[in-house]
Amino acid sequence: MIIKKVNSVSEALHGVKDGMTFMLGGFGLCGIPENSISHLVKLGTKNITCISNNAGVDDFGLGLLLQKHQIKKMISSYVGENDEFERQMLSGELEVELIPQGTLAERCRAAQTGIPAFYTPAGYGTEVAEGKETKEFDNKMYVLEHAFKADFSFVKAWKGDEAGNLIFKGTARNFNPVMCGAAKITVAEVEELVPAGHLDPNQIHIPGIFIQRIFQGEKYEKRIEQRTVKKRN
């Protein structure tokens, strides 16, 4: 059995360079790879392209990279919670590619499974389809979308073993699974890391074959993006 465990986040991010393309799991602030993002900020990696459902908030998640102007391009499906993102986009400082959410997920999954491209009806007749090949199937028009090409995927799971097998918890099982194995190197950070063979095979969501490096994260804040409470009577 191949052991994928590394001893620190710095070891997990070995090889990260300026100008690379990164996938980052999570949805909003749920299930984001907090340790990996913080270390990217510390490294000062510049001119990066980030593929992520969204860009976090102003002072957390990918918002931390935006504050330092480390991101050159964002490929996302939702950007509504980050004022700095909006400012950089409108000023032309940040290149942005907006993609329908399902298409974003499928372009990750296509990269994961080795499918170079696929047809989808999402976005046909809109700006999303501009410059892309279209084709008719059964009297319905489709847009050709290509699989993503990324250098690193950074994902976060609840529990993993040293062989890279992962279990996600609740809604953190969002974009994380489809980003595993979708880049040249997938780095998984977990809240609990156990020896290889200590996970119930029936509970594993992603097998270790998709993971190259795994480490146990620490000091997770798990912030709430939008807190809504019931008013007292």
Automatic annotation (TrEMBL):
Q: Which UniProt keywords apply?
A: Transferase
Task: Answer whether the UniProt record assigns the keyword Zinc to this protein.
Answer: no
Q: Give the family per the record.
A: Belongs to the 3-oxoacid CoA-transferase subunit A family.
Q: Entry's SMART domains?
A: CoA_trans (SM00882)
NCBIfam families membership: pcaI_scoA_fam
Q: Which InterPro entries match?
A: 3-oxoacid_CoA-transf_A, CoA_trans_fam_I, CoA_transf_BS, NagB/RpiA_transferase-like
Starting at the broadest rank, the lineage of the source organism is: Bacteria, Pseudomonadati, Bacteroidota, Flavobacteriia, Flavobacteriales
Q: Does the keyword Ribosomal protein apply?
A: no
User: Membrane spanning segments where?
Assistant: none
Official protein name in the record: CoA transferase subunit A
Q: Which SUPFAM superfamilies match?
A: NagB/RpiA/CoA transferase-like
GO function term, MF aspect, one: CoA-transferase activity
